[in-house]
Amino acid sequence: MNLASLRRLFAFRRWRLLVLAALLLVAGFALYLDFRVRDAFEGKRFALPARVYARALELFPGLRLDPDALARELVWLGYREGLQGDEPGRFERRGGEFEMLTRAFTFWDGAQPAQALRLAFRDGRLHALTDRRGAPVALARLDPLPIGGIYPAHNEDRLLVRLAEVPRELIEALIAIEDRKFYSHVGLDPRGIARAALATVTGRGVQGGSTLTQQLVKNFFLTPERTLRRKFTEMLMALLLETHYGKDEILETYLNEIYLGQDRNRAIHGFGLAAQFYFGKPVSRLTLSEAALLVGMVKGPAYYDPHRHPARALERRDLVLAEMQKQERIGQERYVQARAAPLGIVDKPSMGTSPHPAFLDLVRRQLKRDYREEDLRSEGLQIFTTLDPYAQRAAERALSTRLAQLDKARGGGAPMLEGAVVVVQAQSAEVQALVSGRDPHYEGFNRALDAVRPIGSLMKPAIFLTALAHPKRYTLITPLDDAPLVWKSRGTADWEPKNYDRANHGLVPLRTALAHSYNVASARLGLDLGVSEVLDSVRRLGVAREVAPYASSLLGAVELTPLEVAQMYQTIASGGFRAPPRAIREVLTADGRPLQHYGLTLEPAVDPAPAYLLTAALQGVVREGTAQGLKNYLPPGLNAAGKTGTTDELRDSWFAGFTGDKLAVVWVGYDDNRPAQLTGSSGAMTVWGELMAALPHEPLAPPVPENIETAWIEPQSGLRADRDCAGAVELPFIRGSAPEELAPCAASTGSRIKNWFRRLVE
């Protein structure tokens, strides 16, 4: 064999080895892709976000509810006006009367079917609740408002649907417009591939020709890059997918995977969620025209977005319908009817991952005590929370409106005032609303949970509660010394508190010192009681944060978050029973099985009698003290209680107050801690007033402890009086602590006889 022959032989063997190596490489790559395909399809295919809901509105006769508020909530829920047969999610209103067909929903205690209801309102309450036949209904629930989710990577959101739930018209439309040979090919369309190859060769870029199977592979496994390598991988994976799985299984996965739009930072995937997002209905109830619109959007969800580009979307929908008619998938009559239909999309505000990110942040923090982050992002848990949509929106509106007004009064410019609001149910501490700033959609720093700021005079109720727990020494009328004070303590600078008005007021009754927030009288009282004893009361009220045992702590040199302040005042509002703030009620699995119930945790923290007396004193703050400006906001007879708070150099403005059923805490100030030049009454209290004016309330009438009695007192002398004495006030006392000596106005013979009979009866 000559040299040339040897060279040809070696060259042939080298090429054969290269071909063999290439084949082995392709085979290895195919095995790797086969593993990826089967691993994804045989395991859990989708990471489902935890879905978070607001509280479900419970309807029952006697419920305090404004009919306008109900109408607004129905709109928020996506209910449509006008009853049409038995279609759920519709209502009609005639003044104070409603007729509605609720949606079916699976709650913690089981599935609730759709209900036909009639409601009649009278004097701000639900007067009558009946079914369509007029039979009384004791209790009905509306499906809860979705308020967000805890999402997997890229904030993908979807509602899983089974193929059997999807209308046949949607399947026909999809196959007609995207892949008419879907049920006959093996994952690839040779003609489509030829068109794509020709486009590539002629320099028009890497183009489509993709079957539904290829589209699924591209969305499910691959990046959106447009290269030959990615296209080859896509084709190979499509063949593997068709080898292992049936057409219906592939189609069902496609229906749940395809991207169909964007809701702010939330990606809408799958026809199940798209049907809810665009039409406010389950996919099973889509009409032909609605199904055609969604299928038309597959080509370009942003380009054919019906909210932003209705004309384009309509043209694309009609093209899909025309193609269906051309392929004889629908008849001429149905085609004409569908083309004549309007787009029919619901006008829902964008939500993104949540319209209330600050509240959702609290939910996530509380969930992490019991669940892994991975499970929250992938297991499809259903989280039922305590959020009241009406209270939340009222809080957002009150804060943003008042901050804008306060900024304008200062001439505008940067920086802008910020604030936070927490609203809880007074007895149970369920968090009904939480706002962390003037932009309620901001997902950054959560001021309601993390802004640790000095609380100023909000600390004073702990001093007065401590004092009132000693009825032999202190009552609501005990004189307190408001004379100048210099407190000396070894190792620290002298402490010399001043009143806000820079005046001293001599001897003042205890309730007056709190009503007018006198710093000097409060400091003297706290020092007489002992700083450590006052701080013990603070801990019993629910403040877990360590508080330094300094005299200055008595007047609010204590830094707390708005949520911590809400815990402190909730214990007062509930009559001495402490309940930790709670944002979650129940957790269900993705298929509706109960997983965990977060019940009410209530424990006695302080004696009910001094708590009752303190509440009476805090009502005096609103009636005649630093918060009397609330009379401009609140209806008469509400008897609200509250406390203003202002810190040094007017840096922080606070207000904490409660009615019979709601407690709210408001903070206003600058993030960089510069002086806000606002007192508690000129800043935070005005936000609180606007918020509470927008909500229904129960008047504050706390239950009277057994050892509480009342007596008429003459304010000037602090002695027992008659109700007929000029200026006399009726005040509560722990039994045996009321004054026995009669005021001069009550010392007549008749008054003495009446007092004798009264004491005899007692």
Automatic annotation (TrEMBL):
Source species of the chain: Candidatus Muproteobacteria bacterium RBG_16_65_34
GO biological process, one term: proteolysis
Keyword Transferase: yes
Lineage: Bacteria, Pseudomonadati, Pseudomonadota, Candidatus Muproteobacteria
Keyword Acetylation: no
Penicillin-binding protein transpeptidase domain boundaries: 419-671
Main location group: membrane
Active site: 178 (proton donor), 457 (acyl-ester intermediate)
Glycosyl transferase family domain residues: 154-325
Protein name (Swiss-Prot/TrEMBL): Penicillin-binding protein 1B
